[in-house]
Amino acid sequence: MRTRGWSYLVGSIGLLGFNNAVWVLAATLKTASTDLQLSLLFYKLELLGFLPNTVVAIVMALAYVGRDRWLTRRTFALLGVVPTAFVLLTLVNPGDVMIVDPKLIPAQGVLAFEHEFPPLFGVYLAWLYGAVLVAILILAWGTLTDRVPTVPGLVGVLALLLPLVVAVLKTVGVYPPGGDGINVSPAASAIGISVFAFAIVRYRVFELVPVGRDRAVEVMADGYLFVGPNETVRDANPTGAELLVGDASARLRGSSVNEVVPVYDDLTGTDSVDLEIAGRIVEVSRSEVTRQNWAAGEVLLLHDVTEQRRQLRELERTNERLDEFAGIVSHDLRNPLNVAKGTLSLERDANDSERLATASQALDRMEILIDDVLTLARQGQPISDPEPTTLSSVVNECWEVVDTHNATLTVESDLTLEAHRDRLQQLLENLVRNAIEHGGSDVAIRVGALPEADGFYVADNGPGIPDDERDDAFESGYSTVESGTGFGLERVKEIADAHGWTIRVTDRSA
Fold first, then answer.
1. What torsion, rounded to 10 degrees, do the Cα atoms 84, 86, 90, 93 define?
2. How far apart are the first and last CA of the chain?
3. What gap in Å lies between CA 243 and CA 220, rounded to an integer?
4. What is the residue-wise DSSP string for 55-92?
5. For the chain, how are helix, strand and coil distributed in percent, rounded to 5?
6. Which of 297, 323, 322, 290 has the alpha carbon at shortest distance from 225?
7. CA–CA gap between residue 474 and residue 434 (Å, rounded)
8. Count of Cβ atoms closer than 10 Å to residue 471 Cβ
9. pLDDT tens track, the chain, 510 positions
């Protein structure tokens, strides 16, 4: 219900109550009167009470079911013409066009006011009953299509139906017998309106939370559709209409959901499905709406993911190019490098020299650079299959394959963590190499668990990284020694990020 509709609903229920009070008071005074002229005056006053309620009932029904946009000045003018004309004709009664032969008739212990019905009065009754019936049908439609809560919707139908049935029974002479007697329609209407008002309050229709939620749905960036049990669109916000048909003002209510959302039948459970429409990619997801343990419908959420999918495709293409690059590095560079190393090794065996030793170191350095580049090209992918891994066993394996010189290792924990074993070993190998490279060949390295087993640490007694450079330590190319590639700690961070871990540099006291 929109804010304006909420205001119309509050105002119309208030007017129904006030007009009904006038109707009941006038009917009571008419019944108590023994003077014909006073009874006629109170009878005309009754019309001022119940006749406007026919229009108010239609306004209330439209506002309650969310059709308040129909309540324009033109609508109010059209609805008000007929009752205004009948009120004036009844008050003036020119040529007895509305009231003929008024009289007081003894019935049910009182003097009941009755009169003959001229043809125009019959038209008036037909319009009166027809207007109330329209309001009833609007409320019934709103209840059956789940636009309003079931209980207050049904109570609203009964609240209008009860006085209508009583009035029709009196008009056709069923009750009171012959049609002469006390008209209990005002009492029936008072009871119906009171019960309806109670149901409205009981189900918190007047609370501002639904109004705010409705406003949020109207302006939110994602599309929204409510689909009834018969797979018909019952409600949609402007974004939903814009995404599906390209027009935010388009009316989707009443449309088959399969027509406006072609992938509807592909939606299963909570999984979303992509819908390609008008050059856009719309992610569609659904959730079931239940009421009192029965399925009332479904909510479809539509999210424009065109830009995200474009970026994803671009990322995939970039990764493909990285894989191609890694293949080129592996094949086109490593093979001639191996030839050069093998040839140099043979030459050094026959005629070693300081220059050949320098060349050998350069080739070794080139091989390390190639390994680093390959690892960087392939390490950024997330870990999808972690498994329980014992930290100490991986550390020991790492220690066996790294040239540790005279360095010492102390493992202070048997921590088990979820990790990809090979990539965890690569992470530790890089940390160990980094410690030896910067701390010296006799550096002491310790590996252990953080407090509460919330991760692990790798520490050494080397010089560490200056405080003002720690933010740059994991950047590509960062190194504190001239011979460093600057890739080691970057590789470490790449692997940590792929596991969803965080990594930081601290001093030994931390």
1. 110
2. 58
3. 13
4. HHHHHHHHHHTT-GGG--HHHHHHHHHHHHHHHHHHHH
5. 60, 15, 25
6. 297
7. 12
8. 12
9. 445 556 788 888 888 889 889 989 999 999 899 999 999 999 999 888 888 888 999 998 998 887 878 888 898 898 899 889 998 998 899 989 999 999 998 887 888 888 888 999 889 889 999 999 999 999 998 888 767 778 888 888 998 999 999 888 888 888 777 667 788 888 888 888 888 888 777 766 655 445 566 667 777 889 999 998 788 898 899 999 999 999 988 888 888 999 999 999 888 877 899 999 888 999 999 988 876 566 778 899 999 999 998 888 888 888 778 777 777 766 677 778 888 888 888 888 888 888 888 888 878 777 777 776 666 665 556 676 889 999 999 999 889 878 888 999 999 988 999 998 888 888 898 899 888 888 888 999 999 999 877 899 999 998 888 888 887 777 765 555 555 555 568 888 888 888 889 998 887 655
Threshold 0.70, pTM exceeds? no
Residue type, 105: I
